[in-house]
Every structure is written in C-alpha cells, then in structure tokens.
Design a protein that fits this description.
By secondary structure, the protein is α+β, with helices and mostly antiparallel strands. It is built from 13 helices and 11 strands.
C-alpha cells in the first residue's frame, strides 16, 4: 500500500502541479478554465483506457505469457520512473517558472489551445506512466486491494495539494519533496527490476543465474509486517536469486550515487567526463576478461550404454559412433549399426532429443514352411494357442512367417540418451484340418525352429537417468556461462559506449574555443607589456 500511495502521490502531484499552475495563470489573466478541464478529462479517460486495455490483454494470456507480459510491463515501468526521477531532479526548482513562461508564450499568440494541450499531455503522460507503474507494482504486491487503496489515496492527496497550489494556500518546496520521494522510488524501482527478472525466469526467458543467494525468511516471515514492507513495498523476496541480486544492485547503486552524491564533492564537468572515460575503460577490460576467461561447460562422455532384456539381465551395449551419425549395438556377440538419418526432434526424459525410428522386415526364409503341433506348443510357451483344438486339428500345419524389427534411438547434445529394439514374429497357421487360419505371436526370448530368437532390449534406466541429469545440469551451466561470457560483457560494452559518448560530448562542449584562446593570449601579452 505504501509503494502505490507514493506512486499515486508522486505521479498525481506532477500532473496536479502542471494543471494547477496553468489554472492559476489563466485565472490571473481572466481566461476561462473550461477548455483546460476538457483537456484534463480527456487525458484521464485515455490513461484509464490504456491501463484497462493492458490488464485485459494480460488476463487473456496463458500463465507463461502473463509472466512474460509482467516482465515487459515491469521493465517499461522502471524506464518511466527512472526518467521521471532524473527529469524532476533537474527541473523541480524551475518548474513553475518554465510552465508560466510557456503559458505566457501561448497566450501571447492569442490562443489558449496550447494551454489545453499542455494540460492534456501532462495528465496523459503522468496517467499513462501511473497505469504502467501501478500494473507492475500490483503484480509484485501481496495484497491487490491494499495496493489499489494506496494508489487511490495517493492520487486524492495529490489532487488536494494541486488545488492548494492553485488557490495559493499551499507553499511546497518542490525540490525537497521530489528529492525525498525519489529516494523511496529508487528503492521501489530496484524491487521492480528484481520482480521483472523473476517473472522473466517464470516465463522461460531467463534461465541463467538462478542460484539461491541468501535466505531472508527470518527477516520477513510470511504474513508479518516486515514481509509487507520488504516484499510488498520493496519487492524483495525471501529467496533472491543471483541474477536478481545483480540486477537489483546494478540499478540501486548507480541511481543512488547519481541522485544523492553531495553537491560539494561533485566533480566539474570535465572531471566528470574523465571519470566516465575511466569507468568506460574499466568496463571494457572487465567485459573482455569475462568473455575470455569464463569456460564453456561440457558434459563428460557417458561411455557405452548397457542394454538389458525385459526378462532380466544385461545383453549388450550401445554407443554413439564418432560424428554422431549412427549408433553401434553389440548384442550377444553380434554387431549392428542403427543410422540416424532423418532424425526428428522429440522429448525424452524431460529433454529435447533427436529421435529416429527404424522398422525392417527380417529374413524368414530359413524358417520351416510346415510345423507340427508339438512345435506350435513350444512356440506358444508350452501352451496350446487359443482357438486351436489339438484333437480335431492335430496338424501338421502350413506355416507363414512374418518378422518385423523395430528400433528407436534418442540422442541429445551429442550423447546417446536412450535406445530400444523389439522383434515381433507372427506365425500364421493353415491346413491340418483348420477351417480358418490361426495367428500366433511369438514371445520375446522364445527360440524359433531355425535356432534364432526374437530380440527385445532397451537401454538400462539408470543410464538414461544419469545422462538426463548430466544434460540438465549442463544446460543450466551453459545458461550461466552465457550470462557471464556474453550478456554481462555486452551490457558492460553498451554502458562503456554510452559513457564514452557522454564524456566526449561534455569535453567538446567545455573545450575552450579558438577565439577564446586567442583572446586569452592577447590579454596575457598586453598584461606582460604593461608590466615592462
């Protein structure tokens, strides 16, 4: 509630100040306020529509998309509040004078339309910023009702102050007011940076830097007043992650130094420019060091995958050949190769993997064309197949054999994740007195008349779990490495470039001109001549 109250008060007061100063100026010049109020009402209406539209859009999205939109709104809110704080820090003292000068210029042109437009744009700008800022704050608030109440109270109080300024009954030190509220809003905006980074992770956009840093549950127990302040107002969760702490500090420290560094110790323009250049150089060095020094994580080779039979026991091994274009399978002394051509993406064990399925028809020419009842019972595992009456149809029978081998392989990140094989043998019997043909499926491990055995195997589950765990850890490690090898150096490089450009502009603007140097030289020579 406190955060939204200050936001409503601060943003509302900015609009109220502009409207109040314009209204007082119009009253002193005997002009009607009706057109100005039309502009104010239009600005309020449009701002409300913007906030309502954003909320409706967010409500219509699924959970992950909502988290993503909250991240975007939070980032926009941080940009708005930063611009507001910095602009007001430099314009608060002369705000009234600047507005009255603009109003005088508009009236001097014989038209009050410019004043109406000023009021409309002031209310629209502050209203739009308030809508975005409050939406971001509501998302991070623990109690939406209290947050909304605080915002309404802040706007009401700001309107009252604005009316007091208009009527002349309130004298407000704007510079001091905005300085105090800026300190609080910097803390709130830092919390919004943290919240935006968390919702970005929940949206699946940011997976790096998710290591837990400190446990703050002792500082802000759930449901306590401390939790309402620390979590609800400042946006700091009980379990801040590494990237969140970095983002929070990267915003809070520079903004605090920029706003509250003692004026007596502030460097001159040229000294500040040199300081910016030094910082830019340091950022470039740190960024380059991180980009070159942080290693790229790799997962250790898991070696051969053990193959097991459904009836129990290890039957062989499988291994991805160098180059990753085939899997070599060794089963009971027989070696086969499963090519990976045409592999398609498919999930396996919670990972994204390349999946290939091969189905081949086995050669059955060596199997007998006729079988006896005894052979049929043996192939059925010692049981007479259902539908076959041995007394009425004793055989022998004509045998038609069909054998299909189905093989599946999953590969992830250059490693064999899983593989399986299943032989399906079907025997179709006819003749031997049978009125119609009978079909029998041969179970795995049952010897066939030619001495072969249908083979069914799969990679041992423990191996699959181990590769999945290693790959998952590798993905997180690579995300973290990308954060330090790419994202942070890029951010430092951009910051260094901006600092360098700002320093160059300052040095150019403060450099003595050629004419000025000439005048100084002439003055000095004259002084020397006078002495002599």
């Amino acid at each position: 509630m406190l955060a939204t109250f200050v936001i409503g008060l601060r943003e509302g007061l900015e609009a109220a100040l502009i409207v109040g100063i314009i209204a007082a100026f119009l009253r002193r010049n005997g002009r009607s306020l009706a057109a100005m109020w039309v502009g104010v009402a239009a600005g309020l209406l449009l701002s409300g529509l913007v906030g309502l539209t954003l909320k409706l859009i967010e409500s219509s999205l699924d959970q992950r998309a909502q988290e993503g939109m909250e991240s975007v709104i939070g980032a926009v809110a941080v940009v708005f509040v930063t611009g507001m704080i910095l602009w007001m820090a430099t314009h608060a003292r002369g705000l009234r004078r600047e507005l009255e000068a603009s109003a005088q210029s508009a009236l001097g042109r014989g038209s009050s339309r410019a004043l109406v437009l000023m009021a409309f744009l002031a209310v629209l700008k502050e209203g739009f910023e308030t809508s975005v800022f409050l939406l971001a704050t509501f998302s991070a608030a623990t109690n939406a009702t209290l947050a909304a109440t605080g915002a309404v109270l802040g706007v009401v109080v700001s309107a009252g102050i604005g009316f007091g300024i208009y009527s002349g009954g309130v004298k407000l030190d704007l510079a001091r007011f905005f300085r105090v509220t800026s300190a609080f809003l910097v803390l709130v905006a830092s919390g919004l940076v943290l919240s935006a980074l968390r919702t970005a992770h929940e949206a699946g956009w940011l997976n790096a830097g998710q290591q837990r840093t400190v446990d703050l549950s002792w500082l802000a127990p759930t449901g306590s007043l401390q939790a309402a302040v620390v979590t609800g107002v400042l946006g700091i969760p009980a379990d801040p992650r590494l990237v969140e702490v970095i983002g929070w500090g990267a915003y809070l420290v520079p903004m605090t130094l920029l706003l509250f560094w003692p004026a007596a110790h502030r460097p001159s323009a040229r000294q500040g420019a040199r300081l910016k250049l030094a910082l830019a150089g340091a950022f470039v060095v740190v960024g380059a060091t991180l980009a070159l020094a942080v290693p790229v994580p790799t997962v250790a080779d898991a070696g051969s995958a053990p193959l097991v039979s459904p009836v129990g026991g290890r039957v062989g091994t499988a291994q991805l050949v160098p180059g990753g274009n085939a899997v070599t399978v060794q089963v009971e002394g027989t070696s086969t190769s499963i090519p990976l051509d045409g592999a398609l993406p498919a999930p396996r064990a919670g990972l994204s993997a390349a999946h290939v399925i091969r189905q081949v028809a086995a050669d059955t020419s060596a199997l007998p064309a006729r079988v006896t009842l005894y052979q049929v019972v043996t192939l059925g595992g010692g049981r007479i197949p259902v539908g076959l009456d041995a007394r009425r149809y004793p055989g022998p029978y004509a045998a038609a054999w069909a054998s299909t081998r189905s093989q599946e392989v999953w590969v992830t990140d250059g490693h064999l994740l899983d593989a399986s094989q299943r032989d399906v043998v079907v025997l179709t019997l006819s003749g031997g007195g049978l009125p119609t043909s009978r079909t029998i499926s041969i179970s795995t491990g049952t010897p066939l008349p030619d001495g072969s055995t249908p083979s069914t195997w799969s990679v041992a589950p423990a191996y699959v779990d181990g590769v999945a765990a290693s790959t998952t850890g590798l993905t997180a490690a690579r995300d973290d490495a990308d954060l330090w090898r790419r994202v942070v150096p890029l951010a430092l490089a951009i910051t260094a470039l901006l600092l360098a450009l700002g320093a160059a502009r300052t040095l150019r603007s403060t450099a003595p001109s050629t004419d000025r140097l000439t005048d100084l030289a002439i003055t000095e020579s004259r002084s020397t001549a006078d002495v002599h």
